[in-house]
Predict the 3D structure of the following.
Amino acid sequence: MDTKYDIITIGVAIMDSMIMGFDPVPISTAGYRAESGSLFVGGDAVNQAKAAAKLGARTGILCHLGRDSAGDVIADSLMDDGVDTDLIVRSDDHQTPVTTIFVQEDGNRKSITNSAHRYNFHPERFTEVLTNTRAVMLGSLFRAPFNDPEVIYKVVRAAKQAGALVFADTKMPNYVFLSLSDIADSLPMIDYITPNLAEAEFYTGKKTPAEIANVFLDKGVKNVIVKLGEQGCYFANHETRLTVPTFNVATVDATGAGDNFTAGFVTEILRGSSPEEALRFANACGAICTTAIGSGTALKGREQILEFLGKN
């Protein structure tokens, strides 16, 4: 179909304050040490949109930003990477969320959110824009704004009625918990769901990727991808099952690796690649993301990924 966008990402936009080399042992009652501190734009929808645009997809983003300095920085950063920002909703009523992320030397991280994260943006009020895209990326299911069954249903129904593919990444709940039963009406309209192993275990109650995939498939999801970290990823639908290994790289920061993975997979599926080809490409995107600080730093473009794959 003739559309303005290949992909519209929908979800959260935030500013990340990254504290690198954080030592959890206090040096005093009020102080800790860290190697450095930096500011990066982030949030699932932002990370996915920036990566997809760098990979050559015509990308728009539907999210909320406050009319504040953090919102200005995020909007400018999106435009710098080629993302269309016309769909962003900005207001004076809610601040742009800011997250402080403590990254330890081994790459593990902990984060602190604030009350601005609790504002539940309403993308279901803007579904008319979904008629103008080949694919919709929900980033992420089970987190605001997609922690409300009615919001999820209205968005995925509008996307499917418009003929778009629906890709849903996931996250662990924070303020609101939904079970798969709570969104049973929406699951059959999801073409691809992409949880990591911890998220998949949490929502399905199963341990192995095959058992996890069976739960999602039985509930109507068309294709399931379980991200397995250093073990790569597991793919399943009703015809195919396969595991695609990842790549060994020197990991510096894993922030946004899952978002880069998902963007890489979606862009290659839209190019007509097979699931196995798209997953190998996605694994490369996720691996490269971890080689620099920040979710949008290391990934430069599709040629970079193709060159990396040619060497591995």
